Amino acid sequence: MSTSQTTTTEHHPALAQQFDSMEQQQDASTFGMWVFLLTEIMMFGGLFTAYLIYRIKYYDAFVAGSTSISVGWGFTNTLVLIGSSFTMAMAVWAAQKGFRKAQVWFLIGTMVLGAAFLGVKAKEYHDKWDECHIPGHIIGKGFNAWGGCSATDPKLGNIADEIRERDPKVPKVSAVQTAKQTEIFFSFYFAMTGLHAFHMVIGFGLLSWLLWRAYKGEFGPQYYTPVELGGLYWHFVDIVWIYLFPLLYLISRTRT
Amino acid sequence: MSIDKPVMPEKHYLNDNYGIRSWLLTKDHKRIAILYLFSITVFFFIGGLFAGLIRLHLLTPNGELFQADTYNRLFTMHGVNMIFFFLIPSVPAVIGNFLIPIMIGTKDLAFPKINLLSWYLYIGGATFSLITLLNGGVDTGWTFYAPLSSGYVKSPVIVMAVGILIVGFSSIFTGLNFIVTVHRMRAPGMTWGRLPLFVWANYAASLIMILGTPVIAITLILLALERGFHIGIFDPKLGGDPVLFQHMFWFYSHPAVYIMILPGMGVISEIVTCFSRKRVFGYSFIAFSSIAIAVFGFVVWAHHMFVAGISVYSALVFSLLSYAVAIPSAVKVFNWTATMYKGSVKMDTPMLYAMAFIGLFTIGGLTGLFLAALGLDIHIHDTYFVVAHFHYVMVGGMVTAYLGGLHFWWPKMTGRMYPEAPAKLAALITFIGFNLTFFPQFILGYMGMPRRYWAYPPEFQVLNVLSSAGASVLAVGFILPLFYFLWSLKYGEVAGDNPWQATGLEWETTSPPPTHNFHHIPVVTKDPYAYGEDEEVPVVH
Amino acid sequence: MQLNFPIFPEQASSMAGQVDALYLFLVLITTFFSLLIAILILFFAVKYRRTPERKAEQIHGSTLLEIVWTVIPLGISMVIFVWGAVIYYHMERPPVNPLEIYGVGKQWMWKFQHPSGQREINALHVPIGRDVKVTLISQDVIHSFFVPAFRVKQDVLPNRYVFTWFKATVPGTYHLFCSQYCGTKHSGMVGEVVAMTPEDYSTWLASGKAEGSLASLGEKAFQQYGCTTCHRPDSGARGPNLEGVYGRPIRLTDNRVVLADDNYIRESILEPNAKVVSGFQSIMPTFRGVVSEDEIIAITEYLKHLSPQQANPLNNRTSPTEIRDSEVPNIQQQNEQQPQQQQTPQGTRPANPGKKP
Amino acid sequence: MSEHGHPTPKLYAIILACLVVGTVLTYRAAFWDMGIFNPVVALTIACTKATLVILFFMHVRYSSKLTKITISAGFFWLLIMITMSLSDYLTRTFLPQ
Fold first, then answer.
1. Does residue D57 belong to the interface with chain B, where contact is any CB pair within 8 Å?
2. What is the ipTM of this complex?
């Protein structure tokens, strides 16, 4: 299909009936994607706003919470995601140029990196589970009602203690107290990274579909809009992470 | 022109294809608009039923008809139904969906599949939230304030939140489709300065849909998580701040009232010009005031929270900005009035609705000034004054505009005229019933009757009885069109392409339009509302 | 049905007249513009009705007119804004030397406590002619304290004190409503506010069976919960001496300075280690779930009485940010140096002739 | 991308390098005590990185004005939400005289 050199004057098979030309179709689709990303900005924006308010309100607890998540894994994941953004950009470039093989490989690369990111995320979530840092307790039953965590020993108090041992400047905060406020930190941590990971999963699905079509050779210089749109989406998800990393992992690391 | 009787076109979008599949899998924006028309009518009457029961209950002061719990569920379901399932999709998803592509001269919206998807999301989400009715409905009020909704009520709040979330995505996709279509799909010669004001208004409303709706989505997700898992973001027991919920909720829900009213304003601009046979007065001012309303609408939300415990300084800022939104609305009203000046006015049903809109919206808008005035709002906040104000804008404004638009474009949608006499009667009944229902509520509100009260002190009874009496009249006014519209589908006079002798691309194609809207994509050479250029003074009917 | 129903609420507070004046002004504006538009529309519709002889005259617009009807509404709305803001400012400014009453809202009742110890449910007795400050808190969801005759309304939040004030002017019985939807019996969360002449009020106070003043109730609770074990005025105390603390800026362990107001004291009881006073260990257990909102209020009142000034110094402050370092007492030093003596640095403070309780 | 001028793989590689450097820098900077400037620095770097991705990976540098306006609008609205909400939270403690 892609090998048959259609020109815009003829009817390209991928041209939808409501559009007059491939160019109009691509323009409209790309713009549509941007408008969609606008809604995504506002959706994450609601979370960011709420996060900011609580970060100001419960700063110390946020420091304690932030310190308990692994900055190393966060750093690694940032690099992984940036790398995947690069391969995605290259996939779009290859599609534009009509290099079918390169395009397929770059898409595979993006998916591998995306999967690696999700894998690391899963590991981090699992660690939090083990440490009893899953928020959302049923009132009165302690920090995590399911994970076998006891009600009276929220480990976050211990984190606060550790921080305190290293730095006397940090105010003394009781275990229970820290637990409650840090729980809000973890609520944000899981809500934000969870929503982000959810977007990654959707992106992964999109990429698989693109990969299939790319493998069949549907994309070429005439028609590569789906790859372009998938790319925009993937980069957006990357941008969200670029903000999440410092906001969640790097709150006042100087105190540790 | 009245000599040769108009005939129905042979082939049009309604008879292009038959069968349930051709409707449920259609990608034609016109058919999707009809799907929306059916579904929002259903939800309108469900919501109306709840309203009727509320008014019936309030006939007596001591709450004798329903239990308090039932009453609370009634007003919540009324609010949710009317706002999320009727008002927000009403004009954009029905009339806008049908007309925007035709008005700008294109074959369809930019993304027909997404358009169909958004109808499915709408119907799916709305039906999903009606599941709560099996459990008696939700009793949080449509505002879902935490921590009441997150921890105290026993009704299925999460189901409702998910339902509204899904409908929210439907709204986002509709807005997205409109914006891209208006930007990228205009016919040759259709410049921004030639766009019909209806398109401008819907464009402005779409901006709010895509910028505001995602925020309510995330807010409802957090609320559901709070209720399900006690994550502590809104629950003060866990260190959360319930006022934050209000901020996030109103960040969407205040602009959302402009999603509801702006498209209605667009309808009025079309009707007033057509029935006055006049160019619109101050085209660019009306067009830009729509955008101004959409933008300013985003910076005034905390005027819903003046007594909620927000900072004094913040309250001052939000109050000041609230007045900024009043100005463009005033500009529109004055421009419509001026458009009628020295026109050639014919008072057909759509014009009656338009005139009612201008009057009622003026009252609704001006009473908004009461609520934005800080010292005064303290007293009337959360009273029936707010209820009356809101209904003047939403029923007196939006529903009136929607009905006006439906009458105006009914011949275009179905190819047949509605019967004029019962329609005029219905318009009159609606107007009288509406004022009788809601005007007493202003007085009740200033007297201090709080909203959402199942029982009230006896001195408020007379006004409540008046209001309930008005509601029964209003109900007749709303049910009447249902019958004569249905009747007209079979027996209505064949309308012809342009029964109103109106300008605008939608009147240049057949009624009903063909599946691809035009036989040839039109080229626009004239300004909008070019009345009076080739005028032979038509007297229709 | 009462057929001679009122259409205007009673005016029974010092603010009511001001609010009503603005209301009437706005009614005037609304009536004027609504009639203007309605008359114009109807007039045009009749005068310019469609006839075969006459064509519409095409007018494109007029920038001058557009400016006129932009500027005039803008001017009017600015007048309304300023007027409304001035009233609001008066409403929000805390009164000096008010009668302080505490209120607790819960599903679905109001509880009030008078400083002299009277408690009321769904009723509030106040004297006329005196500023009454009501400090409010909710035990569960958000409620709203609304007295239409006084034109006051304030949402009552859980976990945080808010206040409102009024000065009743006319004796009588008025509605008290909860105006923020709060669940099933929202409309049952009503009561009455009884405004009485000062003489009647003192009679009422005397007749009520108060179990002692609010402060004495607080003192009882203070002892009952064993607060005195640590909060003692001697050098060995494990907790800061609370005499004279209320209304003062406090330095915390992390060198921040906070104002010891109602909210701070409440937080310190329920979440003792959130803001620990400099020089002390965070060893106090939480009293959440042990002590009731009513008791917290009583204890706060007791601490207030331990302060040398009777007037609430918070009423004279502008903002906590204005607290200067020199103003901040070091409670620990105070404990060590003058163990037996009740002393508070009064140097920079505006002299407020205080009577000891 | 109708307005032409395409980024090359070389340019993409340069951007990738910049992003990696930015990430390392954020990471390092978080451990230097700069007082209140820590979050400022972190967010500045994040914004720079985001801008690079938007401009080059997402081709906005080569796109129409409309796309640019759309993106600016997104961030502008986000700013409205944040600043207006904070206007309440940051001034709540002040009491009017």
1. no
2. 0.89
